[in-house]
Amino acid sequence: MTSVDQLRGAQLATFGRRKVAPRVCIADSKKHLRTFLADALEDLGFITGECAKAEEFAAALDQHQPDLVVLGSSLNGIQAGRMIEILAQRGFAGHVLAICPRESITATAIQQMGREHGLLMLPPLSTPFSAGTLHHGVAALLPAEPAPSPAVDVAEALKAGWLELWYQYKLDARTLTPCGAEALVRMRHPTWGVVPPKQFIPADNDQHFRTLSEFVINRTIADWHYLLERQGAIDLSINLPISFLANRDAVHDLCSWMPSHPAFRGLIVEVDAAEVIANLDLLVDVAKRLRLRNIAIAIDRLGVDWPALMELTTFPFVELKVDRELINGCADDRLKQTVCRRIVELAEGYGARSVATGIESRADLVTVHEIGFDVVQGYLFGKPTGLKKFARTAAAQPLRLHD
Predict the structure, then answer these.
(1) Measured between alpha carbons, how far is 229 from 218 in angstroms, rounded to an integer?
(2) For the segment 16-39, what is each residue's pLDDT rounded down to a tens digit?
(3) For the ranges 10-24, 130-144, 272-286, which has the lowest average pLDDT?
């Protein structure tokens, strides 16, 4: 079976019935190459595992149970050949992708050896290659259907340790240098792979919501220490519901968990604008008290409801984050630009920062810069990533635009 169309038909039938994320074992002798491949394949929806040499390969197969094996470019022909023999001995039914220098003798030999042993060999990937080329090479192996919602109960995820935080940069709108990062909760399910929050976040009145909020707070603080050691202090933001901030015991715990480290400049708690506006007196009071404990509240997803904030006599909020629906496409929409200008003016009047979220194009970036936003955030500067990848990205400044 050699054509991509044949592979697509056979593989989607399998994964379509299973409705699970495919697994991949990355075999490469160089750690940085394994890391690059793992990051790229995880972004595509694979659950990844790694192996450095042939002596570890059998154990890696037992541990990861892969649907795809990637033989990396730093493996020599002997190592790759031994791994192919191990796959054949085990009757491996998945696919194999070899990465080799273009038109090399080794690449031809690996492909031929794999076919002779009855393995399903994907067309080889020649070096150098990009994440897009890799995507094209393995696209036929991705699931035909998305994971159902919800994929798993959040209580089970908390107990099993499947939750983690991903981070996305916030940048100064004038210099495009990082000025903080937002923590976003994700689930790494052993079957479904990375699951977005909309598929597992409980309802606001769910008994597990406070436990989830406490997880986010404590993991953020732990991650702050991790990042401090690797790149220096960074200002972090988290999202919390009004139900948590309305609970005095929960707020007391939040304050007690703040780091005493001299480099800690404070934590920003983002609260949905609709909840803030519906509970203005409560949020103003909580924000005043939290400021004394090095915690600030930002109003998130602010949209056409912004006039509700105009008559406040005191404004203890540190940021106004404009809803991505107003930012996306604002370069070509005068109405969106008008609303954004009013919110920026409101923020300036109160001495708060204005944040444009959801920026995905250079045109929108130019527009929000002209409007006068203080901070920008969005996929144009990179998608949210796991802690370790975020730390590596931070060490490789400056950031690059991704459109």
Answers:
(1) 17
(2) 333 467 889 999 988 888 888 888
(3) 10-24
- Does 365 score more than 70 pLDDT? yes
Place of tokens 């950031």: 399
Question: Are 238 and 270 a contacting pair, CB within 8 Å?
Answer: yes
Nearest to 28 by CA among 111, 97, 108, 128: 97
Six token digits for residue 108: 């031809």
Lowest-confidence pick of 75-84, 307-316, 387-396? 387-396
- List the domains of the chain with CATH numbers: 4-141 (3.40.50.2300), 154-394 (3.20.20.450)
| One-letter-per-residue 3-state SS of the chain | CCCHHHHHHHHHHHHHHHCCCCEEEEECCCHHHHHHHHHHHHHCCCEEEEECCHHHHHHHHHHHCCCEEEECCCCCHHHHHHHHHHHHHCCCCCEEEEEEECCCHHHHHHHHHHHHCCCEECCCEEECCCHHHHHHHHHHHCCCCCCCCCCCCHHHHHHHCCEEEEEEEEEECCCCCEEEEEEEEEEEECCCEEECHHHCCCCCCCCCHHHHHHHHHHHHHHHHHHHHHHHCCCCEEEECCHHHHCCHHHHHHHHHCCCCCCCCCCEEEEEEHHHHHHCHHHHHHHHHHHHCCCEEEEEEEECCCHHHHCCCCCCCEEEEEECHHHHCCHHHCHHHHHHHHHHHHHHHHHCCEEEECCCCCHHHHHHHHHHCCCEECCHHHCCCEEHHHHHHHHCCCCCCCCC
Tokens of 325: 């629906």
